[in-house]
Amino acid sequence: MITDIPFVIYIEATPNPSSLKFVANKLLIAAGASAEYTHTSDLKQAPLPKALLAFPFVKSIYVSANYISVQINEIAQWEDVQHELRIFISDYLNKGGVIIEKVPEKLVPKDSSFKENILANTHHEAPKNDIETKIIEILDQYIKPAVERDGGLITFKQLQNKIVTVQMRGSCSGCPSSSMTLKAGIEALLKRLLPNDVTEVISEAV
User: Fold this and answer.
1) Which one in 31, 39, 55, 76 has a CA-CA gap of 20 to 30 Å to 99?
2) Which residues pair with 166 in a beta bridge?
């Protein structure tokens, strides 16, 4: 008789000292989907994020593919709480606990090319023209994989007067090195690939 492989959780560091990635050996949500939650989020359809945010030291939760990025506040140190959270997540998953319930179909536009990413406002804004489409393609192809490895997410918000506005989520939110990533990495790449269309990249608060 073949039994289900149990969830195994291991911890990875991120560039943000207040965030850690809790990585599972199996997918947690559908590939390509992602979701971010804070204490002000609607947690009715997010049982695991709700349970994690009940810890007094947890500030935000970001779920993508096979990992959960947890950001803590200043009242705790990771060396004191990381083992507790790893055990909690492992036990929760292996007891069959629901991670995030399916997003109701009525909230997913049928004509959206970004359907797979529509979860808790972690999707790109729909492009209004060919340039915005190219910007999103560049972010997804060159930037997104590296950002996700660090437990974060970048989403396109708008292009106005050749200035690109993005949002940084997950472990990238509040990360001390995020401004360097934004200017030296994202802005430099977009200016090089789209020199006539992009002059600056700025980050908008989530």
Assistant:
1) 76
2) 156, 203
Pick the closest to residue 72 from 28, 14, 26, 135 (CA basis): 14
Count Cα atoms within 13 angstroms, Cβ side, for 183. 4
Asked if residue 102 is part of any domain, the answer here is no
- Rounded Cα distance between 174 and 36, Å, is 14
Q: Say if residues 177 and 134 touch (Cβ distance below 8 Å).
A: no
Number of domains in the chain: 2
**pLDDT tens across 195-206, in order?**
999 998 888 766
Whole-number pLDDT of residue 10: 92
Q: State how far the alpha carbon of 168 is from the alpha carbons of 4, 96, 132, in Å.
A: 35, 31, 18
- Out of 50-59, 102-111, 160-169, 192-201, pick the least confident: 102-111
Name the residue with tokens 């039994």: 3
Given 49, 75, 94, which residue is the final one in a domain?
94
Which domain range does residue 168 map to?
Answer: 124-203
Q: Judge contact between 36 and 170, C-beta under 8 A.
A: yes
Q: Taking the model in full, what pTM does it have?
A: 0.71
Judgement on whether residues 41 and 85 belong to the same structural domain of the protein = yes
What gap in Å lies between CA 58 and CA 172, rounded to an integer?
16
